[in-house]
């Protein structure tokens, strides 16, 4: 192994995205396991990676003191955004602590998983992402911001229940989303981490097509063999429906903001940044449905 090769660290490695990024480092990019550090609040969940030779460490974003120790020795770090969505200010505080710890630990470059149009998006937690981007820009670190488009996998929050009743209530109007597979984005994150690129840059990673709700519903219905009608509602009606289905008020606000942002065009941009970064074309919706549709079809 090249003694001068950078050590690569992935946070949140027990989550879907972080684990996929580590897997792409190992299996797609053939990075030696000895150059990879995987961190998690639950390091015991990474025993299989440890068995492959990956260094596994505990890192708790609610314990900033743990982060500098966890990040020690890493040259390039993938900061996977945390899931603290419902407590205002918590997620941004976690991310700022991670940026500070990375700088203190001597990390040279951080890649961060952000959101399209983070500086202007109507999604309720967009300020967390933009605030993190600003923290990176103000730090001594090199950085790459990966503004990741909406996952196909996010359809699992709404489509199974909609298919069960045959109706999908939407306040997104004709707004479009340039969906992309989570695994494709994890591949892009791994490529960024392994690239050695030192320039500061912001990339918006999207699918090659953008779909409105009716176009999504038509494809899902055809793949599932079940009818699915989109019912247009306003945002207040959407929130009332979410509350009636047991959503906590804070979470109902978050989900309603997705439709507000979609209607406003915040998630519809298409770029070729993914292909430029990876040398590949992302999965199409049809291909993703063929491989993963079962996750949407069972209510």
From TrEMBL:
Family annotation (InterPro entries)? NAD(P)-bd_dom_sf (IPR036291), NmrA-like (IPR008030), NmrA-type_oxidoreductase (IPR052718)
One Pfam assignment: NmrA
Domain NmrA-like: start-end pairs? 7-289
* Coiled coil, from the record: none
On the tree of life, the source organism's domain of life is: Bacteria
Renumbered to this chain, the signal peptide range is: none
Record protein name field: NAD(P)H dehydrogenase (Quinone)
Tell me the organism: Pseudoxanthomonas wuyuanensis
């Amino acid at each position: 192994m090249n003694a001068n090769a950078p050590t690569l660290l992935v946070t949140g490695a027990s989550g879907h995205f972080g684990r996929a990024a580590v897997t792409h480092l190992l299996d797609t990019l053939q990075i030696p396991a000895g150059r990879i550090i995987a961190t998690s609040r639950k390091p015991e969940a990474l025993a299989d990676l440890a068995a492959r030779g990956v260094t596994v460490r505990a890192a708790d974003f609610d314990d900033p003191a743990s982060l500098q120790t966890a990040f020690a020795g890493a040259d390039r770090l993938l900061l996977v955004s945390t899931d603290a969505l419902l407590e205002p200010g918590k997620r941004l505080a976690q991310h700022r602590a991670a940026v500070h710890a990375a700088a203190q630990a001597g990390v040279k470059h951080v890649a961060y998983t952000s959101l399209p149009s983070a500086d202007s998006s109507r999604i309720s937690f967009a300020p967390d992402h933009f605030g993190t981007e600003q923290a990176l820009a103000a730090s001594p670190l090199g950085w790459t911001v990966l503004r990741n488009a909406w996952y196909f996998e996010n359809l699992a929050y709404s489509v199974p229940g909609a298919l069960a009743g045959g109706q999908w209530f939407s306040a997104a109007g004709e707004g479009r989303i340039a969906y992309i597979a989570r695994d494709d984005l994890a591949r892009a994150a791994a490529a960024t981490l392994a690239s050695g690129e030192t320039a500061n840059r912001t990339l918006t990673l999207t699918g090659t097509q953008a779909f409105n709700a009716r176009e999504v519903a038509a494809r899902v219905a055809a793949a599932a063999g079940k009818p699915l009608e989109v019912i247009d509602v306003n945002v207040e009606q959407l929130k009332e429906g979410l509350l009636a289905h047991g959503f906590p008020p804070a979470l109902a606000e978050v989900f309603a903001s997705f439709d507000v942002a979609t209607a406003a065009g915040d998630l519809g941009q298409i770029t070729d940044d993914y292909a430029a970064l990876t040398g590949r074309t992302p999965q199409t919706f049809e291909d993703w449905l063929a491989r993963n549709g079962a996750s949407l079809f069972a209510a």
